[in-house]
Amino acid sequence: MADVGNGVSVEAEGLTKRFGDLVAVDGVSLRVRPGEFFGFLGPNGAGKSTTLKMLTGLLRPDAGWARILGEDVWADPVSAKRLLGVLPEESPLHERLTGWELLVFTGRVHGLPRDEVERRARALCDLMELAESDRHRLVVDYSTGMAKKVSLAAAMIHAPRVLFLDEPFNGIDALAGRAIRGALREAVARGVTIFFSSHILEVVEKLCTRIAIVAGGQVRAEGTMADLRALSGRADATLEDVFVQLLGAAPTEADLSWL
Amino acid sequence: MTHLLLLLRLRALLFVRAFSGRPGRAAAGIVALLFLGPGAAIAGVAVFAAVRSSPPARLEAFAIATASGTCLLFLLAGAAARPAGRLPLSRLLALPLAHRTLLGAGLLGGFLGLPGALAVPALAGLAAGLPPAGAGPVAIRAGIALLLLGHAVVLGGLFGLLMAFAMRSRVLREAVLVASPAFVIGLWLLPQLAGGAGGGAGLSSVLRWVGAVFPAAWAGRAMVSLPAGETAAALPFLAGFVPVTALLLWADVRLFARLAAAEVEGPRRRRGRAGPAPGPGPWTAALPAPAGVVAWREALLAAREPGYRLFRVQFLMLALLPIVALLVLGEGPARPAAGPAVCALLAFLALGKEWGLLSNLFGLEGRGLGLTLSLPVPRGRLLLGKAVAHGAIFTLVNVAIFGIVGAVTGAYRSALVGAAATEAGLLPLVGAGALVTAYLPFPMAARGRQALEQGGREPEDLGTGCLRSLAGQAAFLAALPAGGAVVAAALLGPGGVGLLAPRAAAAFAAACLAFAFAYGASAAALGLAIAGRALPRHEERLLEEAG
């Protein structure tokens, strides 16, 4: 695989974003290498989604920069977007297209020939266990899980070299989830970089080769699972243990004895 | 009983909250509550006072109209009430509440909303406006009024339940949305046609028919005849009215049970189509990639988005204008002369309507806006694809409208000139619309779906709203040379006023037409190119506006 970005797939330096007085992201710097399954964790309001939006060219940072495989996201957004696939958390889709039409549109916009788009769309729908009849229903009639599957397939159809996935397994059934995890692992083995954000710490621990934990808009810890365990001082610590230790568990003072 | 009171309290709270928020909405609420209701009561009193001395038939007619109107108020005002004023049934079903409590709260809740606020004063007006009488007749009237109110409540409930069933199906829901303007226009047009055909006879026969078969009208009739001592005349009406009301209540109970069961089952989902829809055809290759694919997708969205379909239905209904004009003009000498005026008016209206879409080319994206903006499409081509789709659909509708006008008025030449001038005028609007899309992004209906032809809610930023309005006027000024050149070609060209020699007229017309479309195309291309370059700087704001 050609190495475009000096051996770095996703690179960010000093990314900062303010919304009025609130500093949502405060000088985040990251380097993710090709073939890494990179976990991006944090509590609610930590700045994960804002960072993801800045990395994928949807939100312009107030300070700092981001590159995808060497392409500056904000200097040439179109070139950068060619290299990546994005699955946003809420899977916003065009409700009046069928799942199939959405995949065909996304593939064709990325410049794929029609036959190839259809071949890939079929393969992705099979992987996601999206029944033939469901593929040709309007997205507005989809369940949450089906919309998520189509959204994920749309993010993957052009075989991006960097995939940004925000809560990809929310609402997806166990069978499809297992198949998708397998496909993602295979893609990583072939050199695809996956930037993965989730609140399900067990899944992150199982899948990711490197993890960053953010809170208050800043990266608090970053490294492999072994690095994070070393940081926590416990060799048998789970990711949840590290997460809680690092960010501190909220004190439970409410009297719930009646429950 | 406690549950019922709790539910009614909640309903009243939601009704009050529906008016809170923006100052405009609060003002609308105050107008509705403080002025419309008492206004209806005063109008009722005044009308009855005016006809007291008239023959009994007239008094009876007014009683029938008021009683029927009260029931219609419950129906229509209940249907028009904002969803925030209703209680979500699926949530309530999870609570330990009996069906009869829920139904009772639903029916009585009508009094704690717009229907009650309007209908109760109107009914009080009916009772107060009738001729003065002793205590006995007044008590009889009050009793019948209460019966009538009960009837209105169960009838409104039945209507509401039927609507709730219809709203569970997306297809039915959208069909209602698209058909409603046709229904309203039909309501307005029918009396005009009936009046044209035979004066007011058609309308009064409809009223007589309503008075005979509409149960609420029977109560109105009884309210006039019973206190006047005409018991024999009133009893048949009351004898029919009470069982009909009981039957409606029974239907409410049964329907509510069915609706509750359906709510527990969950939302109804449509089955898939038999096979895949055709993908982007070879025609998409005629545009620089990937503008053709974007145009294909935009056309699909336009064909399926109910708000946009509604907009097109309204657009086609513009063609009704000349038909109404002809009804007014009849067969007199003014009829042939109406053609050019009607066509000019239509061209202006058509372009005005289209501007709403062109000035927000992202209006159809809805929740998919983020996905579209995350795609590696050069922005100029993204806008080009969208503009081509809208332009093509506009052309189809434009040809249909002017075709109808030509066929109805016989002014074929005016219709042809009108269609051509509209098409030429559209091109500069495309360029201007792309610029407004990029520089003045509009709040879009990502969550709500109202006013989709304008891209969504009203602009919250007054400055942007003013700028958009000014931009619209500037765009129409820019479109004038293109449309004007087509009109000049028609006036001074062959078949025109005959000011020029035939060859000179032909040359002049050709030059005018060439200028109109070359100028229009250049303006469109320039606007799209500038907007395409500017759009990346404004995408963040666009996403923010979309929520």
How are the strands ordered across the major sheet of chain A?
6-7-8-3-9-10
Helix and strand element order of chain B:
HHHHHHHHHHHHHHHHHHHH
How does the helix and strand content of chain B classify structurally? mainly alpha
Largest interface: A-B, 43 and 41 residues
- Helix-residue proportion of chain B: over 70%
Strand fraction of chain B equals under 5%
- Number of separate domains of chain A: 2
CATH C-level of the largest domain in chain A: Alpha Beta
Q: What characteristic shape of chain A results from the CA principal axes?
A: globular
- How many strands in all of chain B? 0
Taking all Cα atoms into account, the compactness measure Rg of chain A is 19 Å
How many helices of chain A in DSSP terms? 10
Compute the average pLDDT of chain A: 89
Under CATH, the homologous superfamily of the largest domain in chain A reads P-loop containing nucleotide triphosphate hydrolases
Total strand segments of chain A: 10
Instruction: Estimate what percentage of residues of chain A fall within beta strands.
Output: 15-25%
The biggest beta sheet of chain B reads:
none
Secondary structure topology:
The complex is a heterodimer of chains A (259) and B (547).
Chain A: E1 10-19, E2 22-32, E3 37-41, H1 48-55, E4 63-68, E5 71-72, H2 77-83, E6 84-87, H3 99-109, H4 114-127, H5 132-135, H6 144-156, E7 162-166, H7 174-189, E8 193-197, H8 201-207, E9 210-215, E10 218-223, H9 225-232, H10 239-247
Parallel strand pairs in A: 3-8, 3-9, 6-7, 7-8
Antiparallel strand pairs in A: 1-2, 1-4, 4-5, 9-10
Chain B: H1 2-18, H2 23-51, H3 56-80, H4 89-93, H5 99-108, H6 114-129, H7 135-168, H8 170-198, H9 201-213, H10 215-225, H11 231-265, H12 291-304, H13 306-317, H14 320-329, H15 334-358, H16 369-373, H17 379-409, H18 412-439, H19 462-492, H20 502-546
